[in-house]
């Protein structure tokens, strides 16, 4: 076997072991502060934020925000995209909103993003990646005049990074899960962040908080909430099968009452077996309705 290959393999294995050793150090540090830390962590999570970030290894959300496990619910993909048909992401959003009851969603992009840079170039990066990056190219196409007006190449990349975050924020506001939450009286806040890799700081992008209300009506959905469904059940349409059954029930009751009155007027009362049997049949028919 080539000596260089052996040497590289040993080096890679050493680096891999360093990652596992780092976990041991992490556990020791946490337990030194609070011995029951991981036992408490295992009881459940109550994060207040969902963060949708880029998979870039230089942009770890917890480390950048000095937050502990359990504080931020995190989803990451290439270039922090919110694609409406992404089943994985939509499951994350639904779970965060309907089960974890988060109150804010954050889309965090970053500078020096390889996905942004690739989307601005015409060179193919291969297969599914080209298809994925088309979502950024759409943003680039819509804002090409603004981006190309900048002279510095890094400024162009940063500009598209910001515009991409804004576009993904808008995609979240268009999401049916978020719109339903708003209509139910739980206004999820949506924020856009840009992490600057070269400085370490996060910049909050100024995004109009009124956007959900002013969103194009083409994307605005109306939901029949649970309270409205209950009300609609109570006010059944006249021609519905349920309403017809109710009318039959009421008619049957009237027949029973009339029959009982008639029997009381007779001297024999309820002595006749066939009269009692007839009443029982009326009652049974009524119950079946």
From TrEMBL:
Protein EC: 4.2.1.1
GO biological process entries: carbon utilization
Keyword Coiled coil: yes
InterPro entries referenced in this protein's UniProt entry, alphabetically: Carbonic_anhydrase, Carbonic_anhydrase_CS, Carbonic_anhydrase_sf
Pfam families: Pro_CA
Cofactor note: Binds 1 zinc ion per subunit.
Keyword terms, alphabetized: Coiled coil, Lyase, Metal-binding, Zinc
Coiled coil: 133-163
Cofactors: Zn(2+)
Molecular-function annotations in GO: carbonate dehydratase activity; zinc ion binding
Catalysed reactions, as listed in the record: hydrogencarbonate + H(+) = CO2 + H2O
Binding site for Zn(2+): 54, 56, 110, 113
Function text: Reversible hydration of carbon dioxide.
Family per similarity comment: Belongs to the beta-class carbonic anhydrase family.
Protein name, UniProt field: Carbonic anhydrase
């Amino acid at each position: 076997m080539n000596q260089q290959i052996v040497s590289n393999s040993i080096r890679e294995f050493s680096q891999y072991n360093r990652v596992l050793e780092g976990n041991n150090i992490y556990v020791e540090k946490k337990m030194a502060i609070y011995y029951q830390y991981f036992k408490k962590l295992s009881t459940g999570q109550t994060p207040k934020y969902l963060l949708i970030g880029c998979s870039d290894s230089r942009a770890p959300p917890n480390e950048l925000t000095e937050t502990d496990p359990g504080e931020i619910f995190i989803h990451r993909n290439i270039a922090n995209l919110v694609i409406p048909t992404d089943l994985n992401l939509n499951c994350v959003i639904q779970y965060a909103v309907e089960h974890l009851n988060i109150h804010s969603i954050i889309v965090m992009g970053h500078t020096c993003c390889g996905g942004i840079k690739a989307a601005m170039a015409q060179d193919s990066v291969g297969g599914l990646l080209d298809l994925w990056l088309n979502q950024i190219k759409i943003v680039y196409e819509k804002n090409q005049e603004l981006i190309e007006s900048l002279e510095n190449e890094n400024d162009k990349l940063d500009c598209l990074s910001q515009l991409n975050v804004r576009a993904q924020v808008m995609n979240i506001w268009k999401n049916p899960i978020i719109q339903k939450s708003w209509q139910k009286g739980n206004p999820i806040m949506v924020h856009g962040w840009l992490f600057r890799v070269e400085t370490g700081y996060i910049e909050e992008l100024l995004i109009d908080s009124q956007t959900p209300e002013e969103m194009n009506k083409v994307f605005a959905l109306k939901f029949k909430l649970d309270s409205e469904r209950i009300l609609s059940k109570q006010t059944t349409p006249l021609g519905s099968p349920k309403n017809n059954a109710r009318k039959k029930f009421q008619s049957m009751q009237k027949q029973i009452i009339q029959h009982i009155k008639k029997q009381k007027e007779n001297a024999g009362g309820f002595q006749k077996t066939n009269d009692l049997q007839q009443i029982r049949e009326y009652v049974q028919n009524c119950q079946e309705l």
